[in-house]
């Protein structure tokens, strides 16, 4: 049973990182006004939401499986309070990422009940989650030094870097002049 929990913890952690990367990339792109020829903006936003939800669900499974695994020795306090575990840096980063994800999820669920500016400011914590979770994934677990995990990490880093670079380049572009409206023709 412990091997199954260990494999489940590893797999869900990795897929959570991939989904979190997808979420961040789509958040950066849609927030920067990216337009896809194949997908309308609402579809990209919906993929962003669903990837976020899937990442959160897998994160719960990741933590739950490691908590139940007797070899991982994860305590309840390790899940909530960062940097108290037996691997304070790497596990602490994971706990910090979880705490930040919690803030983003709770404020997103309360979005209709809080001011937009407050929600948006707290939602920006999502950008802080990614590097913290990324570093947690690089340093935690038995796969930390493997070539394949490093390859996945490089691909995730590249995706976020390209999206961030695109977004920054958009900030430097001069605003396009407004398009002239076509004259209206009288009906009748």
UniProtKB/TrEMBL annotation:
Source lineage: Bacteria, Bacillati, Actinomycetota, Actinomycetes, Micrococcales
Membrane topology, from the record: Multi-pass membrane protein
TM region(s), chain numbering: 12-30, 51-68, 88-110, 122-141, 147-166
Residue intervals of the Ferric oxidoreductase domain: 12-133
Compartments, as annotated in UniProt: Membrane
GO CC list: membrane
The keyword Transmembrane is annotated on this UniProt entry: yes
Signal peptide: none
Organism: Oryzihumus leptocrescens
Keyword Cell membrane: no
Name the UniProt record assigns to this protein: Sulfoxide reductase heme-binding subunit YedZ
Keywords associated with the record: Membrane, Transmembrane, Transmembrane helix
């Amino acid at each position: 049973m412990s091997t199954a929990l260990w494999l489940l913890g590893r797999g869900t952690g990795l897929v959570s990182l991939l989904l979190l990367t997808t979420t961040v990339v789509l958040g950066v792109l849609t927030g920067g006004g990216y337009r896809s020829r194949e997908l309308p903006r609402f579809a990209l936003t919906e993929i962003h939401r669903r990837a976020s939800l899937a990442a959160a669900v897998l994160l719960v499974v990741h933590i739950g499986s490691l908590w139940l695994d007797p070899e991982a020795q994860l305590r309840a306090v390790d899940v909530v309070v960062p940097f108290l575990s037996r691997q304070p840096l790497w596990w602490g980063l994971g706990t910090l990422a979880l705490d930040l994800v919690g803030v983003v999820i709770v404020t997103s669920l309360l979005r209709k009940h809080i001011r937009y500016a407050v929600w948006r400011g707290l939602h920006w914590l999502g950008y802080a989650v990614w590097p913290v979770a990324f570093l947690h994934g690089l340093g935690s677990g038995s796969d930390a030094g493997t070539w394949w995990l490093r390859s996945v990490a490089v691909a995730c880093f590249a995706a976020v870097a390209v999206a961030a670079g695109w977004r920054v380049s958009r900030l430097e572009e001069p605003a396009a002049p407004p398009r002239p409206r076509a004259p209206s023709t009288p009906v009748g």
